[in-house]
Amino acid sequence: DAGVTQSPTHLIKTRGQQVTLRCSPKSGHDTVSWYQQALGQGPQFIFQYYEEEERQRGNFPDRFSGHQFPNYSSELNVNALLLGDSALYLCASSHSRMGNFNQPQHFGDGTRLSIL
Amino acid sequence: QKEVEQNSGPLSVPEGAIASLNCTYSDRGSQSFFWYRQYSGKSPELIMSIYSNGDKEDGRFTAQLNKASQYVSLLIRDSQPSDSATYLCAADYMEYGNKLVFGAGTILRVKS
């Protein structure tokens, strides 16, 4: 049973460039969430996709956008990269919510993005 | 007040002891709570989820939830050096559309 897979594992970009990160959810999961984790901090929620639509969004600028495909896989796009975008980007998948309760999210290994 | 607060540590315990990790949250509407373990350079790994007041046990781990006090804890019994990691607490936030909010994590060091 494959877990959450992310690609690439590492990426180096320069300021102003654009980047696309990819995620395949765990088998049976239909919801994908993206997080940014800076060194020494907890993951910060970027957005969540369910049924190919953005269901929730965190406090991130419009430079951060995403997409979910019919097979539940997802992409995170970041435009006009800034030095401060350097971080570990984590994808997490889960089953959809059951009533008022969030289902446990399972994380991929992440993409470490460095901006020069 | 931070949304989810954890003592950054490090918390040092001897091998075989009980490690107690604590977390408070500010949204009284939070319904879902999770503990994750994160080794250095790795991604978070789910340890426990808890949704109702009281204790929930899974092997050497026990999660405790007190919604009246807005307090979540994780106990690790018979701590092992392999338990040395950062432990992240997360809670969902009703006012933010039920998004998951993480604390900054507590560093645990188990000394042999």
Query: What does the radius of gyration of chain B come to?
Result: 13 Å
- Residue stretches of chain A low in confidence (pLDDT < 50, at least 5 long) are none
The share of residues in extended strands of chain A comes to: over 45%
String of helices and strands of chain A: EEEEEEEEEEE
Shape of chain A: globular
Summed over residues and divided by their number, the pLDDT of chain B gives a mean of: 94
State the separation between the terminal residues of chain A, measured CA to CA: 37 Å
Provide the gyration radius of chain A in Å.
Answer: 14 Å
Please state the structural category of chain B: mainly beta
Number of helices of chain B: 0
Largest sheet of chain A: 7 strands, mixed
The percentage of residues in β strands of chain B lies in over 45%
**Helix-strand pattern of chain B, N to C?**
EEEEEEEEEEE
- Give the low-confidence spans of chain B: none
Q: So what's the oligomer here?
A: heterodimer
Give the helix tally of chain A: 0
Which range best describes the helical content of chain B: under 10%, 10-25%, 25-40%, 40-55%, 55-70% or over 70%? under 10%
Beta-strand segment tally of chain A:
11
Helix content of chain A: under 10%
Biggest interface, chains and residues, is: A-B, 25 and 25 residues
Major sheet description of chain B: 6 strands, mixed
